[in-house]
Design a protein that fits this description.
The complex is a heterodimer of chains A (313) and B (349).
Chain A: E1 7-18, H1 21-31, E2 35-39, E3 45-46, E4 63-66, E5 69-78, E6 91-98, E7 105-109, E8 122-127, E9 138-143, E10 164-175, H2 178-188, E11 193-197, E12 204-205, E13 221-225, E14 229-237, E15 250-257, E16 264-268, E17 281-285, E18 295-298, H3 306-309
Antiparallel strand pairs in A: 1-10, 2-3, 2-4, 5-6, 5-8, 6-7, 8-9, 11-12, 11-13, 14-15, 14-17, 15-16, 17-18
Chain B: E1 5-12, H1 24-39, E2 48-52, H2 55-58, H3 63-67, E3 79-82, H4 86-99, E4 104-112, H5 118-121, H6 138-151, H7 157-171, E5 188-190, E6 193-194, E7 203-212, H8 213-219, E8 224-233, H9 247-255, E9 265-267, H10 273-282, E10 290-291, H11 306-319, E11 325-332, E12 338-345
Parallel strand pairs in B: 2-3, 2-4, 9-10, 9-11
Antiparallel strand pairs in B: 1-7, 1-8, 4-7, 5-6, 8-12, 11-12
Helix pairs in contact in B: 4-11, 6-10, 7-10
Classes of the chains: A mainly beta (313), B alpha/beta (349).
C-alpha cells in the first residue's frame, strides 16, 4: 500500500460575539475588578450570570455584586496544562462558589500541588494585570485563609460598557485525504488526472471520492482522463479575492475532461474573458513545481458539439 | 393507532486509533453495505435516511455531504443530518416513521477523532463567553464530575478502576472494540481520572436500520421494538448543576417508559468511568442488570457514533435472543449534559 498522505491543517478563527446586557455587565465588571451575579425570581444568585433563569426560563436582569472570595465545590488536578489554559504551570481546575453566590464558576486554581487542594477550601480571585473584559481577566484563583470579602454593592452600570468580545479559536489537525483522493493527488504530482469508474453505473468520477453518489457503492477502478476537456459552463469573476494575485475579471469554468462523467472546476486563461464560451476545448497549463494545473487554455480545436457535454452541465 | 417501530439491523466498524488511510466516506461505506445486506434492502428502498457527525472532529467543513455519496443520494432521497451523536439521528428517524411518512429508515453516524486532538476539539462545544476561552478539555470536566462523586461518597478511585476493568474484560467478546482485555489503569490524566477511566480515542462508524410494523417482521426474525425514546438537556452552565446526579437521564428514562418494567440489559454511553456511577443511580439499575456487555464507551469511543452503537448493541442482543427488555442510553456534551434513553423489547418467547 502506498504511503498515507498527510499534511498539517490549522483551523483558526477570531469569533466576534455580541454581548447582551447581562454578559456585558459581567465582563465589563471583570475589567473593573467587580464580580456580578444575577438574581433569579426565587432569590438565588447565579454567578456567572445568565440572561434567562435555567429553571423557569424567565428573563432575569437584576444584577448584584458578589465577593472575590469563595469556596471550592469540586476540583481536578491538571498536571499537564494544555495550550490556551489559564496557567502554564500545573494547576487545579476548580468550580468556585463565590461568597454571595448560589452557583459555581469554572476557573483555575494556582496551588503547589494536589495535596494543597480540597473541596471546601477557601480561595480568592487573582486578577490579571491587564484586563480587557473577558473571563481571563480572572488570571486564576489562589488559596485564601482570610475573612470573606464584602462586595461593594455595584449595580452593574459602567462607563464604556463592553458590547462585544473577540474569542480566538485555533484547532490543529493532521489532514489525510483517504485512499481515493490520495491516488488523485499522487497522479497530479505526475501531471496526470485520474478518476474512478463506478462498477454499477460505469460513470467516471473526477476527482474520485471512493464512492458513487448515484449508486452508493465503492469505486476503485482507475481511469485516466483528459488532459483535454470541454468548458460546460462558466462565470466571470469581477471581485478580487484577498491574497489572490489573479487580475480580474477572469473566468472560472466547469470543465469536463475527456473521458470523465463529472466536470471539474478551474480558471480559464490564454483567452480574453469575454470570448470564453460553452463548448470551448481547453487543456491544462502547469507551472514549475505546481501541485495542480495553474489554469486551462484553449487548444485551438473546434468547439465541442452541445450534445457531447449536455449531460455534464 | 401508534405505529410499532423496531431496530431491525445494526452494523459497526472495527474501532481503531486511526483510519488515516481512509476518508470518512471510505470508512463509513462498508458499514452501510453491511447493515443493508442484513435486511436485503437497497439504498433506493430506504424511506428516510438520517445521519449524525461533527465537522469539528476532522476539521472538514460539510463533511456529511461527502458521506452522502455512500448512500446514493441521486436521484434525490429523503434525508436529514444532525450535528450530534447518531442516537439523535435515530430519534429523528423514529419520529419520521411514527408520522407514517416512511416505513424504513437508515441511520448512520461516524467520527474520525484521529486527525485532531479530541480533548481540545470538544472545548468548542462549551459556553463561548465564560468557559471556552479557558480551554478546559473534555477530561478535565469529567474529572471535576468524578471528584464531586468521590466527595459525595458515591465512589472512590478503586471503584472507578473496577468499572474500566469490567468494561474492557467484557469487550474481549466484542470483535469491534478498540480496547479489550486487561488494560493498565495508568497514570492520572487529570486527577482523579487515570488513563483507564477515560475512553480510548478512535475512529469508527455505525449504522442501524429501522422499520415499522409488519415491515420490521419481514426484515428481521426478532425485531427490537422501540417502546419509547426521550431525550433531555440540563442547564448549560456546569456550576448550576449537581454533577453527582443526572436529572435529565432520569426524566428521559421515565418518559421513555424505562421504569414501567425491569430491564435485563443496559447499554450506557458513559465515556468516563465515573459517569457510569451517575447513570446507574439515575436509571435505578440494580446489580441484576447486565451493564455494557459490549464493553461500552470505555472500550471504543468513536465520538458521534458511540451513542448510536449503544442502541445498536442493545438491539443486537434482542435480535440474538440474549435480551428481552433492554435500555440504551446516549449522551452528548460535557459531564452528561444531554441524555437520550431508549427502551427496546423483543417479542415474547
Amino acid at each position: 500500500m502506498p504511503e498515507v498522505l498527510k499534511a498539517p491543517l490549522v483551523v483558526e478563527f477570531p469569533f466576534t460575539r455580541s454581548l447582551g446586557p447581562v454578559q456585558s455587565a459581567f465582563l465589563t465588571g471583570l475589567r473593573e475588578r467587580v464580580v456580578l451575579g444575577v438574581k433569579t425570581g426565587d432569590g438565588r444568585t447565579l454567578v456567572p450570570p445568565v440572561e434567562y433563569d435555567p429553571v423557569t426560563s424567565e428573563e432575569i436582569r437584576d444584577l448584584v455584586e458578589v465577593a472575590a472570595t469563595g469556596t471550592v465545590t469540586t476540583w481536578a488536578w491538571n498536571h499537564e496544562p494544555r495550550r490556551g489554559q489559564p496557567l502554564a504551570t500545573p494547576f487545579a481546575w476548580v468550580l468556585v462558589r463565590l461568597d454571595g453566590a448560589d452557583t459555581a464558576l469554572l476557573h483555575a486554581l494556582d496551588a503547589p500541588g494536589p495535596d494543597a487542594v480540597r473541596t471546601g477550601m477557601r480561595v480568592r480571585i487573582r486578577w490579571a494585570g491587564e484586563r480587557t473584559g473577558a473571563i481571563t481577566d480572572i488570571a486564576c484563583f489562589e488559596p485564601y485563609d482570610g475573612q470573606p470579602e464584602q462586595p461593594g454593592g455595584h449595580t452593574g452600570e459602567f462607563e464604556n460598557p463592553l458590547t462585544g468580545i473577540v474569542t480566538p479559536a485555533r484547532l490543529d489537525y493532521t489532514y489525510s485525504p483517504g485512499r481515493a483522493q490520495a491516488d488523485y493527488i499522487d497522479a497530479l504530482s505526475e501531471q496526470r488526472t485520474v478518476g474512478e469508474r463506478c462498477p454499477s453505473c460505469r460513470k467516471v468520477y473526477v476527482p474520485p471520492r471512493g464512492a458513487c453518489p448515484t449508486c452508493g457503492v465503492a469505486t476503485a477502478e482507475h481511469v485516466e482522463v483528459g488532459p483535454r476537456g470541454t468548458v460546460t459552463t462558466y462565470c466571470i469573476v469581477n471581485i478580487k479575492a484577498k491574497n489572490l494575485d489573479i487580475e480580474v475579471p477572469y473566468v472560472y469554468a466547469h470543465i469536463a475532461l475527456d473521458g470523465a462523467d463529472l466536470a471539474l472546476h478551474a480558471r480559464i486563461g490564454g483567452i480574453p474573458y469575454d470570448e470564453v464560451r460553452m463548448g470551448l476545448r481547453v487543456e491544462p497549463v502547469w507551472t514549475q513545481g505546481a501541485r495542480y494545473p495553474d489554469h486551462y487554455r484553449p487548444t485551438g480545436e473546434p468547439d465541442a458539439d452541445y450534445d457531447t457535454y449536455k449531460e455534464l452541465l | 393507532m401508534t405505529r410499532e417501530i423496531a431496530v431491525v439491523a445494526f452494523a459497526q466498524t472495527d474501532h481503531r486509533r486511526s483510519t488515516e488511510e481512509s476518508s470518512e466516506v471510505e470508512m463509513l461505506m462498508p458499514v452501510l453495505h453491511e447493515v443493508l445486506d442484513r435486511t436485503g434492502l437497497k439504498t433506493a428502498d430506504i424511506g428516510f435516511t438520517c445521519s449524525g457527525s461533527s465537522d469539528y472532529l476532522a476539521g472538514r467543513a460539510f463533511s456529511f455531504t461527502l458521506a452522502l455519496d455512500g448512500v446514493g443520494a441521486w436521484p434525490p432521497i429523503s434525508e436529514s443530518h444532525v450535528e450530534m451523536d447518531g442516537a439523535w439521528a435515530l430519534y429523528e428517524a423514529w419520529t419520521k416513521l411514527l408520522t407514517g411518512d416512511a416505513d424504513t429508515a437508515l441511520v448512520y453516524s461516524y467520527g474520525k477523532c484521529s486527525p485532531g486532538s479530541v480533548r481540545d476539539v470538544l472545548t468548542r462545544q462549551l459556553d463561548p463567553y465564560y468557559v471556552a476561552p479557558l480551554w478546559p478539555d473534555a477530561v478535565a470536566l469529567a474529572a471535576l464530575q468524578a471528584q464531586a462523586l468521590i466527595d459525595a461518597g458515591d465512589t472512590d478511585e478503586p471503584a472507578l478502576a473496577a468499572v474500566g476493568a469490567r468494561s474492557r474484560a467484557d469487550a474481549a467478546a466484542n470483535p469491534h472494540a478498540q480496547l479489550a482485555g486487561r488494560v493498565p489503569q495508568g497514570d492520572y490524566v487529570v486527577r482523579p481520572l487515570r488513563t483507564g477511566d477515560c475512553p480510548p480515542i478512535g475512529d469508527g462508524a455505525a449504522a442501524v436500520v429501522l422499520a415499522a410494523g409488519e415491515r420490521a417482521r419481514e426484515l428481521c426474525e426478532r425485531p427490537a421494538w422501540i417502546r419509547g425514546i426521550d431525550h433531555r438537556i440540563e442547564a448549560h452552565a456546569l456550576g448550576v448543576r449537581d454533577l453527582t446526579d443526572s436529572p435529565s437521564t432520569r426524566l428521559a428514562a421515565e418518559k421513555a417508559g424505562a421504569f414501567e418494567g425491569p430491564v435485563d440489559t443496559a447499554e450506557l454511553h458513559a465515556p468516563f468511568s465515573a459517569q457510569e456511577v451517575v447513570l446507574r443511580k439515575a436509571l435505578r439499575l440494580g446489580d441484576g442488570v447486565r451493564v455494557n456487555p459490549s464493553g461500552g464507551a470505555l472500550a471504543a469511543h468513536p465520538v458521534m457514533a458511540a451513542g448510536l452503537i449503544r442502541i445498536g448493541e442493545a438491539a443486537a442482543r434482542i435480535h440474538r435472543g440474549e435480551s428481552d427488555r433492554a435500555l440504551a442510553h446516549a449522551t452528548s456534551g460535557p459531564c452528561l449534559q444531554q441524555n437520550l434513553v431508549a427502551v427496546l423489547e423483543g417479542d415474547p418467547r
